[in-house]
Amino acid sequence: MAVAGAAFHPERLPHLRDMLARHVESGFVPGLVAAIWRKGELHLETLGHQAFGGAPMRRDSIFRGASITKPVTAAAAMILVEEGRLRLDDPVDPFLPELSGRKVLRSIASGLDDTVPANRPITLRDLLTQRLGLGAIMVWPPQHPIQHAMAEAGVAPGFELPALDNDAYMAALGALPLAAQPGEEWLYNNGLDVAGILIARASGQSLGDFMRERMFAPLGMKDTGFFVPAAKRDRLVTLYRNDHATGRLIVHDDPGSRFPRPPVFESGAGGLVTTADDYLAFQRMLLAGGSLDGKRILSRASVALMTTDQLSPAQKAGPHAAMFLNGNSGWGLGMAVALARDNLWMNPGRFGWDGGYGTSAYADPTEGLAGILLTQRMMDSPAPPPTYTDFWTGAYQAIV
To answer: Boundaries of each Beta-lactamase-related domain copy (predicted)?
Structure first.
């Protein structure tokens, strides 16, 4: 029986644990950390191990966040917009001259020299709404010249983060034609990496330093950043991917590989590491209209803009967007926004995103709910894996 004023049904919370535990017991994931917060009440599940045969999972285990980095980068950009150092609809050329004078492919299948001039300059709004004109071309195996060119240049979206520094990344991207006119088509990923570089150049700081000073420190996000210091390395989980040839999980990234050292490129699209408590603080800040525990990060107006769909119906249904947005979501600034309730958790207005390294984080203003699932199994496709859908089913069925 639920207690009056409670956030969750105590007799239903075990359903959430049972649903998640099945994925650990079956070996689908080595372990996980899941947290849901509502009305000041936190429910947290810590299951399994940081690696198969490794140390037990901890509440403060550190996970590679992947694309749940995107909302954080958008929030960082909006801090600069609020200070007048950036404007959403101004050309980014003064800070990103590599993007000036763009050429655009005549069609997605065109050769790299079959171009027309861009209709207008690229803006910050284009970057945050993923309408830069370059991004994931959802044709597999790759067949278009622009897909091959992006891969050869080291700027193609994928599970491997870019290995170029900011200037080299922009030089490589700037040497390519756009696949679509600025602002016209939703293409996943690259816009948020470019936004991260824009933030660094406009602020005069590295992206990581800016985020740490303006968001992570005020919000108490002590374990979030672009690498894991040596003293915290024992908390970094091992990342696995499915080997399609054998159907078994194999190591994709272990704690001793990339993330224990500062990266060459701080990816605003997918480079952060974080913990459940840290990221939940960020979500709660957005859920509260830009402040947490008396520390204001953004205005309510900025949060409202970030969490409002910015796409046209045609853009949401585009050939490179529909697989991600699934017909029930739009895209605000750096994150998805639910538009239609076609499942338990798809409450219109719910906002957040998933990460390809096994993470899912959304907040629901109507229910006053924030939740995050952290696993270390990479996604097999843009479709959510059963761990995600079971987590969100379990979270919503437990709401009082």
So the answer is: 17-379
pLDDT at 311 over 60: yes
Residue 32 pairs with which residues in a beta bridge?
A: 47, 375
Contacts of 375 (CB under 8 A, 6+ apart): 29, 31, 32, 63, 358, 359, 387
pLDDT band at 4 (very low <50, low <70, confident <90, very high): low
Domain boundaries, the chain: 13-69+206-397, 77-203
Contact residues for 241 (Cβ-Cβ < 8 A; gap 6+) = 159, 249, 250, 252, 377, 378
Beta bridge partners of 43: 36
With contact defined as beta carbons under 8 Å apart, do 41 and 5 qualify?
no
Give the up-direction half-sphere exposure of residue 99: CA atoms within 13 A in the CB hemisphere. 28
Distance CA 324, CA 320 (A): 8
Band the pLDDT of 179: cuts 50, 70, 90. Answer: very high
Distance (Å, whole) CA 304 – CA 333: 10
- CATH dotted code for 13-69+206-397: 3.40.710.10
- Of 204, 190, 133, whose CA–CA distance to 162 is shortest? 190
For range 238-249, the mean pLDDT? 93
Closest by Cα among 28, 116, 139, 79 to 303: 79
Model pLDDT for residues 63-83, shown as the tens digit of each residue:
999 999 999 999 999 999 999
Nearest to 86 by CA among 126, 135, 118: 126
Region of 264 (left: φ > 0; alpha: ψ -120 to 50; beta: rest) is: alpha
CATH architecture for the domain at 77-203: Up-down Bundle (1.20)
